[in-house]
Amino acid sequence: LLTDPRGSSAPLGAPQVQSSPLRCLTLQEKLLSHSSQLAVPEFQVSLVPQLARSICSQLQNFLRSKFPELPFGRLSLSGALLDGLEVLAADHVQLMLPLVLDAGLWSLISGEDTVVRNPQYWMIKRIDLGYFPRGCSPWDRFMVGRYLSSSVLNETLHKLLVASINWPAIGGLLGCAIHPVVASRELKLEVKHDQVDLSITLFPVVEMEDKVLLAVPPEGLVENLWLESFSRAEVSRLKELDAADSGARQLCLRILNGVCKRQPRLHKLGGSPLRHLVLHLSDTASDWAEESLADRFQQVLEELVASLEKGVLPCYFNPKINLFSGLLEEEIDEMGFVLYRAITEPEVLLK
What we know:
By secondary structure, the chain is an alpha+beta fold. Helices cover 39% and strands 16% of the residues. It has helices spanning 27-35, 42-66, 80-83, 150-164, 167-174, 231-245, 249-262, 272-284, 293-310, 329-344, and strands at residues 76-78, 92-98, 106-110, 121-126, 143-144, 147-148, 177-180, 187-192, 197-208, 211-214, 225-228. Residues 1-10 have low confidence and may be disordered.
């Protein structure tokens, strides 16, 4: 008795079901799928700013009682979470502490004209000491020579954070544990809450002559330098561009920030350097629609590799500033190696 070679379970003449091969996802589809996995948990989006603002308020009250003569401005929150560019976890926030200076007593000197020859740094010089002697400005106590010292100010605030504030009591009031980081050069607090671990960094900031200057001196002996920050301008420009053409620049940045956050060797590229690169590309690449996300993502990788090979990434707002100047040669080599491999297979960065 002959049997049907196709098997006896199906009647003769029945249509055969063909198993369709699995379709490979395009880079565009992988990027969009990956971006949906980067969202910060909702409870962190609401809890972290609330917790940080409560700590901010306690710190502001303490500063006013400890230094009533120093005209500090209102502390405010800053960082990727507030900018809508945070990914994966809301684990760090910045507190900006403004110093209110009398513009008639202080002036700015570019870092290009100092021994460091770095245009990203500035010195804040006390002027008219003949007419307004030392003591006329409440900030004179932080002078070294004739310059407002970011290092002396940071040292004073560091001692205050570490030794003068009753963090256990404040933490008990807010339902968390707060610990100042003693060994750090930065003014940093570590906060442990039942639902989140948070790092808070305090930055004294001076706004003068359309510049935003942070008390972040370079490592070394020069203690009077202030670092110019472009973060506010970067984020503002990106939002403005995306609003004008319904662009996906911020989406592209969130994906890239996620890559840098997960890849230890790429950590120093995350945040500001990526924002400057995307702004540069926005001047030459006109199509930033979501449908072109894969093309723009690939282009960012190629531009990053080219910039790392040269060791130069110009600041978007001041091309004299090289945003890679603070990187070690070994760091540049490691970053370049990771990204060069990813140019031909960008999907590896999404794993």
